[in-house]
Specification:
The strands form three sheets. The protein has a six-stranded mixed beta sheet, with helices on both faces. A six-stranded mixed beta sheet has the order 8-9-7-10-11-12, with helices on one face. Helix 9 packs parallel to helix 11, helix 19 crosses helix 23 and helix 19 crosses helix 25. With 749 residues, it is an alpha/beta fold. It has 25 helices and 18 strands. The radius of gyration is 36 Å and the shape is elongated. It has three domains: 184 residues, P-loop containing nucleotide triphosphate hydrolases (Rossmann fold); 188 residues, Rossmann fold; 197 residues, Rossmann fold (3-Layer(aba) Sandwich), CATH 3.40.50.
Length: 749
Amino acid sequence: MDCQNLRSPEVTGAQRSQEPRGHRSPEVTGAQRSQEPRGHRSPEVTGAQRSLEPRGHRSPEVTGAQRSQGPRGHGSLEVTGAQRLRSPEATEAQRSQGPRGHRSPDVTGAQRSQEPRCEAHHLSELRIVLLGYRHSGKRSSGNTILGREDFDTLGRTTQCVKRKGQVAGRQVTVVEAPGWWRGYKLENTPELTKNEIELSVSPCPPGPHALLLVIRLDKPFTETERRSVQKHLELLSERVWSHTIVLFTCGDWLGDTPIEQHIESEGESLQWLVEKCGNRFHVLNNQKREDNMQVTQLMERIEEMVAGNGGQHYEMERRDSLHLSELRIVLLGYRRAGKSSTGNTILGREEFDTQCVKRQGQVAGRQVTVVEAPGWWKNFHLEETPVLTKNEIELSVSLCPPGPHALLLVIRVDTPLTETNERPVQEHLDLLSERVWSHTIVLFTCGDWLGDTPIEQHIESEGESLQWLVEKCGNRYHVLNNQKREDHMQVTQLMEKIEEMVAGNRGTHYETGRQRIEILEKRRIEEERMKEMMVKVKIKRESLRSQMGDCLHLSEFRIVLLGYRRSGKSSTGNTILGREEFDTGGRTDQGVKRHGQVAGRQVTVVEAPGWLIYSQLEDTPELTENKIELSVSMCSPEPHALLLVLRVDTPFTETDIRSVQEHLELLSERVWSHTIVLFTYGDWLGDTPIEQHIESEGESLQWLVETCGNRYHVLNNQKRQDHMQVTQLMEKIEEMVAGNNRHHHDICE
């Protein structure tokens, strides 16, 4: 078999006279040649000249008998004169000029017998990339090739998708690249799509054996589409054409029409494309997946092409990485993923200990800026993350202007990334924009946990969720062992990977976008309101203190802790009493009462059982309702203060308003005059004032704080040695009691 299956039948004079302009056959006079456009001469070729032709580009005559033996859809144009296609004996420069024709010369039988044949090898592994415009049938083709529904045919692909399977005794990897709009110019295709097309060859290292250019048979292929296809494929390089096969889908549309006849009838644009791909083409009918022969024949044609390419696959172009004198990095990820430790490892010293910070240093001859963004809870969806955290994530990229070169998505390698974690990761990164993925590297921490296991093996063994994430980030990843900071090579290699990614992004950094301006304006308004709130609270407290004088220093405090489950009531009771009195491990079904001495006062603390977060009163068991009502009677005569315990690291929504209101008003409507909102998880705030958090969270939380007379306090239960936070809480309780005319009773009816 000829390397590229190129048949070019002889043409009669009558047939030549019918050819379109630019399709002169080779038997022309000298005068005729002088009139041809430069680059389009097609001289007769002698036997000696033919012997110098590139291997695999001979075009022998084919008899009618030989033509009849070719399988339908085969990538060899055994056609009649009326069906003739242009020969590929044009140079690459000539081909790139467009579809105007170039006839191959006649070849004698003697010459034909001397042609070399390319023996296809049976490859045990095949790596395939599917390229093409949207709705061309790439995903259906992937499913047909693999023999099962591996590619989602309903949604749109914005990232490369890789799937594997056993096909006809071969291990086959299929990568689907995202498509461009049919007929679109390259400049109208989003940068993200262009980047993904360029990266599509990297998920099947060391490179694909074949790129299948997927074209629908039932749609005309015009000159506009030809230019669009050419520009998009040449994002990979000019070499791509030597490894490309045109894969026609919607094969059922042909009926009994040979594919060669369709190519001829479509005209110059499709003929040019087929020739540009070395006259390699195949037809798939994705409606007949049970027809395994069509896939087997495709595998054989790929092997023939590989043989014709000297057994070589498509070599991925390794972009020359830039050596950047400055690198700007943002660390993103869920809480406790190891972002702070990663920042310290990168900079080579202890710089990070809190969230939302920016640090700089010299690393491997570069000026490096590292910004750590606040984290979200690993399983929390975006709507469960406080507005303040979301704003800080969005603003994190603006702390290293004009924008970061790389965003490192920090993931612990020693804990599984499940399907439950997929959505939170995607939602929180998409806060920045869909473009963020082109600038993101997955950074695995706890690298010591791997031992001798390659990270690639770990990724494969973890399953689809982690594989999805790595593919979403363009198969860019790195492992850090933060226990071995003296190993500078791991940081140097990370810097090099960042520079390679920047080179792949055409030397550009992540653009912060207009959202930053909008967030900053919103932040400015919130800060003005925060200042007003702080002034208002300060004036009220000073007024109460002046009324109190020295006459209201309570020697005894009676406190009830109320709130939903896991809000931190037990830990708060322990912080107030300064010791482990409340069990933080189990659930409280009954009211629990404890005593102690705090700042010279006798303090009684009662923890009431909690309700489920977001649940309404009708969803709470009657027993729990009764225990909440009885909790105030456990500190006779009645409590001085009810502390409504809320986590500051979770949003307070309109659903929460109704839940809190219904459960507190079990005691009576007068309960609000004796209630202080107590925020737990104070460490989450960092340097952010609680007033800013209240303002940023919106109307629901603001309503609650106002209903409680703008009384609120923050506790960090991780810092129990900080007694000042408890002392300040005692003072706020005394002020509230003074504001209630020194009454602590009549809370309940």
